[in-house]
């Protein structure tokens, strides 16, 4: 039996093994040897760029949902996902949902689509996310929600 052409990264159980593997490949990628969790974690620190401050470095990126209605509107499953985005504590929600600009342009038959209902639907999704974020984190300070 021959060796696989690559190493499964899951087989590397600690930072030292990862660094040893990188040295064998003559690759230099810095990493921390100690995992810092909680408020001291680098990912928990605010991110500041110009006049914009995010409360932490966690982000939610757009995803294409398969749980909208056939006419492109959100369902309770869509709202549940957005509430979970809020509860996650991520301070950058960039997009949250891939929304088609027309029904014919949807990637799947249950993807959200722009239409006369879109402003109200997206507003309700945003409200659900903000309410859950406030409940989970205690504040909506330094939370940014955008669309791409």
Strand order of the largest sheet: 3-4-5
Average of the residue pLDDT scores = 91
The shape, in one word, is extended
Largest beta-sheet characterization: 3 strands, parallel
* Assembly state of the chains shown: single chain
Global Rg: 20 Å
Low-confidence stretches: none
- What is the string of helix and strand elements? HEEEHEHE
- Beta percentage is 5-15%
Report the end-to-end length measured between terminal Cα atoms.
48 Å
Structural class comes to alpha/beta
Number of strands: 5
User: What helical percentage do the residues reach?
Assistant: 25-40%
Q: Please count the helical segments.
A: 3
Quick description:
The protein is α/β, with parallel strands linked by helices and 148 residues long.
Give a verbal description of the structure:
With 148 residues, the protein is of the alpha/beta class. The protein has a domain of 102 residues. It is 28% helix and 9% strand. It has a three-stranded parallel sheet, with no helix packed on it. Helix 2 runs parallel beside helix 3. The radius of gyration is 20 Å and the shape is extended.
Write the layout of secondary structure elements.
Blueprint: H1 15-24, E1 47-49, E2 52-54, E3 59-60, H2 76-87, E4 92-94, H3 118-137, E5 144-146
Parallel strand pairs: 3-4, 4-5
Antiparallel strand pairs: 1-2
Helix pairs in contact: 2-3
List keywords for this structure.
single chain; 148 residues; alpha/beta; 3-stranded parallel beta sheet; extended
